[in-house]
């Protein structure tokens, strides 16, 4: 059981304690992806942990302020845990079918593949207990896969039988008409009936990341509480009695009001009244969890209205993280990948602390936070990687998707301990990451696949996507522009460039690199993108070394080439310098998101100003007008 994290109250006794990590699945579980940590003899970069306070909710709120969490050991559920604890509840993890049957309220944050989840539930005898619990109309909230498993079956690696509680088959999105799959992004919901937990969503956006969905039909219409349009109308949520489930991720759909509440010195006895009075409609994601956990505190009536459904353009803040020469973990930013100052000392450029900046960008309205670990940390045991600490602390305050890249590969630490890329990714997921970004290792895998034409199943892309789904795998492509006078001069895909080269060249190809741009490879960005999509990548982060840090705009020719070539989402990166660059990339290419770093770190542009500009240009974005007031009780988090 875990204690709720709050700052101290003058009404309640508090004890200073570190927030305990989630318990590992039993070692006997063959599907357990929680790996043991090893003591490090290496001096870790300095990262100050946040002070947390362990307090217990008063019985005046609930007789039993505990949420039972069904975590079967795959994927990131840390954010769900953090959200639950922040709302005043302890957590009891399911260890046996009896724990399900005895639960007062049960949350199932399903992550990963349908078949793997059903195997675990069946082998442990939990499938039958879960069906009994739900049939008895006990308080239940399923999230993402936790919704899909309620249906009769799934086509994912199947057909595979589900729990069979709701009529229907979970099928893959149809990408034959150009639809990008996975569906990754922020969408509005179409509410179909009073669902209680969705009544404050209205026209706010919530975050989806999935390749499979259930469709509404006459057989399941009594269950459907909302739909969402992505190619077709699919089921976004279901509700019958006390049983709820959502396809989106409420714990990743924002929770601005949660930060405000965490900064107040309040007695948890008063939290029902407080959250009712301070509920803000921009708090879309965590309001779902809040209403599920406090069902009797709200009586808002929902107004059903027809909304225009479309996926919003995402604005992503990227933080390049590395150790400086003093051993501190800092956010830095390079010019064409050079992160050192042009001074006599040649020191690493220090633009802030990673957890603090991530929290700031979240409050400013970033749709996603991306961390790039640009220090090798090759000698560190996996459990002691500094980036894991950053993820753990960030996930306590940031309730939008977190992506981490750098070092996702097979490696051996200084003590000779070997780790597979799947083990590395798994530990990142357990620490708070929602997606991992693979760079150099993806290039090597694509080269081998193009050479042999064989999917071995051993590459990092294949291993991770097989266990966690392709929506969890991002491939970061780092090409540089190579001008050509004749497009037939190379065997790679070329484009006619918008701006001719220094000698009047009208064509170019984009040569991929590895090792942070230090080594060129004989593979083009187009060929790499097509190969990694086939290997199982779910998203592409498309950089351009020539544009990095220049502030002259995204490499439109490259982004158009790649976003037209693949059916998975493409994130445009490198080169943004003003708000017009963001609207340009969304208007001229099929990019699903635009990423920036230095202009946000140096406060040359704010995320809010970028989104306001995009909205004014007619581009759908998730707007978050509410910002909590600063608190004199706030502490630095690293």
TrEMBL record:
Q: Which GO terms describe its molecular function?
A: glutaminase activity; imidazoleglycerol-phosphate synthase activity; lyase activity
Q: What is this protein called?
A: Imidazole glycerol phosphate synthase hisHF
The record's listing under PROSITE patterns reads:
GATASE_TYPE_1
Q: Which family does it belong to?
A: Belongs to the HisA/HisF family.
Q: Which domain of life is it from?
A: Eukaryota
The free-text function statement in the UniProt record for this protein reads:
IGPS catalyzes the conversion of PRFAR and glutamine to IGP, AICAR and glutamate. The glutaminase domain produces the ammonia necessary for the cyclase domain to produce IGP and AICAR from PRFAR. The ammonia is channeled to the active site of the cyclase domain.
Q: Which key words tag this protein in UniProt?
A: Amino-acid biosynthesis, Chloroplast, Glutamine amidotransferase, Histidine biosynthesis, Hydrolase, Lyase, Multifunctional enzyme, Plastid
Q: What is its main location?
A: plastid
Where is the protein localized? Plastid, Chloroplast
For whether the record's keyword set contains 4Fe-4S, the answer is no
The signal sequence is none
- Looking at the record, the residues that make up the Glutamine amidotransferase domain are 69-257
Write out the biased-composition intervals (Polar residues): 41-50
> Which Gene Ontology terms of cellular component type are present?
chloroplast
Give the organism the record lists: Rhododendron griersonianum
């Amino acid at each position: 059981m875990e204690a709720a994290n709050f700052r101290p109250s003058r009404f309640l006794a508090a004890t200073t304690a570190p927030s305990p990590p989630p318990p590992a699945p039993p070692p006997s579980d063959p599907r357990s992806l929680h790996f043991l940590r090893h003591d490090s003899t290496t001096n870790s970069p300095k990262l100050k942990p946040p002070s947390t306070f362990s307090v217990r909710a008063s019985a005046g709120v609930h007789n039993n302020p505990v949420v039972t969490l069904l975590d079967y050991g795959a994927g990131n559920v840390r954010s769900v845990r953090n959200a639950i604890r922040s709302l005043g509840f302890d957590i009891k993890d399911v260890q046996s079918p009896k724990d399900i049957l005895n639960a007062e309220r049960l949350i199932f944050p399903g992550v990963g593949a349908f078949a793997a989840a059903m195997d675990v539930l069946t082998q442990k005898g939990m499938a039958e207990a879960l069906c009994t619990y739900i049939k008895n109309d006990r308080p239940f909230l399923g999230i993402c896969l936790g919704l899909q498993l309620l249906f009769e079956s799934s086509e994912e690696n199947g057909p595979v039988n589900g729990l069979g509680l709701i009529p229907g088959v979970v099928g893959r999105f149809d990408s034959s008409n150009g639809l990008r799959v996975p569906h990754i992004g922020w969408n509005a919901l179409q509410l179909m009936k009073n669902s209680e937990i969705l009544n404050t969503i209205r026209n706010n956006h919530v975050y989806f990341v999935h390749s499979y969905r259930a469709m509404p039909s006459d057989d399941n219409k009594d269950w459907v509480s909302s739909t969402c349009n992505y190619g077709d109308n699919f089921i976004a949520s279901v509700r019958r009695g006390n049983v709820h489930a959502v396809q989106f991720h409420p714990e990743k759909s924002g929770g601005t009001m949660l930060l405000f509440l965490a900064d107040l010195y309040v007695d948890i006895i008063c939290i029902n009244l407080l959250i009712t009075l301070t509920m803000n409609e921009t708090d879309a994601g965590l309001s779902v969890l809040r209403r599920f956990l406090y069902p009797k505190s709200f009586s808002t009536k929902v107004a059903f209205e027809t909304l225009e459904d479309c996926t919003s353009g995402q604005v992503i803040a990227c933080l390049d993280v590395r150790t400086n020469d003093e051993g501190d973990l800092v956010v830095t930013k390079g010019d064409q990948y050079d992160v050192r100052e042009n001074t006599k000392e040649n020191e690493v450029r220090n633009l802030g602390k990673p957890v603090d900046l991530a929290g700031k960008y979240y409050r400013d309205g970033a749709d996603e936070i991306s961390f790039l670990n640009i220090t090798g940390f090759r000698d560190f045991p996996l459990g002691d990687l500094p980036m894991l600490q950053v993820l753990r602390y960030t996930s306590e305050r940031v309730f939008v998707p977190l992506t981490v890249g750098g070092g996702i590969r097979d490696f051996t630490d200084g003590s000779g301990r070997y780790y597979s890329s799947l083990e590395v990714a798994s530990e990142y997921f357990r620490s708070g990451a929602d997606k991992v970004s693979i760079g150099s290792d993806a290039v090597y895998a694509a080269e081998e696949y193009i050479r042999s034409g064989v999917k071995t199943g051993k590459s990092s892309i294949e291993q991770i996507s097989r266990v966690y789904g392709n929506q969890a795998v991002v491939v970061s492509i780092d090409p540089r522009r190579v001008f050509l006078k004749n497009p037939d001069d190379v065997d790679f895909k070329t484009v006619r460039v918008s701006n001719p080269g220094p000698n009047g060249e009208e064509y170019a190809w984009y040569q991929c690199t590895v090792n942070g741009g230090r080594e060129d490879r004989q593979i083009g960005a187009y060929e790499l993108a097509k190969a990694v999509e086939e290997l199982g990548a779910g998203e592409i982060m498309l950089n351009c070394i020539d544009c990095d840090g220049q502030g002259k705009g995204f490499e439109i020719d490259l982004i158009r080439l790649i976003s037209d070539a693949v059916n998975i989402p493409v994130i445009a990166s490198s080169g943004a310098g003003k708000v017009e660059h963001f609207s340009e990339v969304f208007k001229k290419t099929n990019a699903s998101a635009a990423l920036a770093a230095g202009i946000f770190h140096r406060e040359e542009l704010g995320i809010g100003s970028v989104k306001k500009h995009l909205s004014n240009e007619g581009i759908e974005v998730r707007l978050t007008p509410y910002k909590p007031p600063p608190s004199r009780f706030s502490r630095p988090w690293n």
